[in-house]
């Protein structure tokens, strides 16, 4: 038996992910409070309470927790120490957050659980000559990654050659946008046939359910997800491998919630875990229209102890992000009417009060037959501060 | 080109209809303000602004209108005069509201447009003997209806016999729960095979689109909608007649928005208009899951001048209302977990802070095959302050 509200959830971060969680919370009579530094973050539009404060401010987090039964997050930057000291359930667990925040620790942790991944090596020395020898030993091409803070392709560089940046460069290390001295590691540059993602939900009592994989396509210049497609164009046996791999990876972590497991499907038919987001994810937006249970409702069910929902997709779908055009400032939308005139195309605007070039301002999901054509046609018509 | 927000809509009434409109407004970046007398009405959970005030208070309505571009309503009790004086667009129009508010005026108006309806007759005399003669002339059984204020079956009585209530009753009039002296009228008691409803949307530029009809089933003791079923079990040619009749009825009224046209499908295969609600309606809740465009988003598109959405249903669905059980007061939900364990069953709780016997506290929509079984099984499991 439940009273109203059924649960009170505090979310660290009030961006578009928080917005879509808060929107799904309405029908379940779950009360959402958010912590966000901005005066008008997207999620404040349908949250019960907005605490304005820095995402890592222990006082603000404690204030958030005061009126909540469960704490969760839409961004992985929270301080696990602060979260542990709250004496309230935090889902997924601070231990998982700590593992996820350091990609090398994440790799090591998953390696211990036997999860297939690209080969990787730590770079723990400050000695450039020794680092150069490690790279030489590892072999080129390789991928250079920061351990912390990278997202949307930031903090990832493919290094094709051992040559330094210029003839006068005093270091023996190859050119990289990431500091070799910083906390970084290297990884096998696998030959990628497709980038896939599998959503996995775990309930508070440990039940795990996965969704079918989706294909992710990236914008090569902005390095962020440009399009997501369901179903992924991969063989049925690979679908099973993807789901099993993703579920095994999540089983190696603790805590309840939705997890997005990003996968590489390689030219030599391997399925390797790239990385895991312990939260709703851009790759799962199309579950709003195309799956029985959206990733946002699933996250709420998972963290509050409600039964997990059916993960079946009931129709094909294509999602495309709407990114801010070249002019920063107050957003002006063009093409809204054109998109809304398309059948089976859902428009999601995030209501951000300011746009920047490449900022995620909304998305489009086209369902049913010809999803790609409908999504692409709509996507070409709409712009935010475009030229 | 639009700025953010795309429109600012003021809604008179913040109950579950307003809640579901406000929830749909999020993705369209439409800002919703509501006027509602309660401190915590359902729609306040995701509205931008809540003005606490009586629904018919001219000052409160003006305050609502100050920060809005368009005024609409989720309940038909507003004062058309006040709305006309706002100098802001009111959709659907105050003229339509005025017609709808008086069921006899509605009947006469639709009669003028040639809309098929049950036969009806005004009762304008205060003379009981003359009223008795009018009834005798009209013939029994007949339906006695109040002109104003009836909803959910209130203000409607079937009168089978001309006999007065008791032998000592001094009036020659038959027994009726409605006053014969008040503003009432009588109507043909048609032999109803099915009660149907058709949603019709009209945009600000006059485009009209209809949905396919749904079947409405009523709780005989509470006299309110108990279940709604799509598709309606009627012949294809009757579907066409229903849609044409509903569109013709809406064409006879002015203003933009969604209209729910309630129809009688009679034993002698006539399709007759019962009444029209100029707003989202309980019969259309299943469009959230089963139609390309929900009635709530369609209403927002219609009143704000955005293009109308596709009205196609993409899957069968059954909706059942969750009504308050016998114990009034703070709601306690039983069976939430059981309902959420069913696949393809969506739970919608309205978050009302107080329940009363028969109060609409939420609804369930089951989609896909075996919708009736899934909906009924779920509906039997869930209760609010039941015994």
Primary descriptors:
homodimer; 387 residues; alpha+beta; 9-stranded antiparallel beta sheet; 4-stranded parallel beta sheet; 11 helices; 28% strand
Instruction: Kindly report the oligomeric state of this protein.
Output: homodimer
Report helical residue fraction of chain A. 25-40%
**Radius of gyration of chain A using CA atoms only:** 21 Å
> Main β-sheet of chain A, in a few words?
9 strands, antiparallel
Number of strands of chain A: 20
Average pLDDT score of chain A: 94
Question: Can you give me a brief rundown of this structure?
Answer:
Chain A is α+β, with helices and mostly antiparallel strands and 387 residues long.
Description:
- 2 copies of one chain form a homodimer.
- By secondary structure, chain A is an alpha+beta fold.
- In chain A, helix 1 crosses helix 9.
- The longest helix of chain A is centred in the middle third of the chain and has 16 residues.
- Chain A starts with a strand and ends with a strand.
- At the A-B interface, strand 1, helix 1, strand 17, helix 10 and strand 18 of A face strand 1, helix 1, strand 17, helix 10 and strand 18 of B.
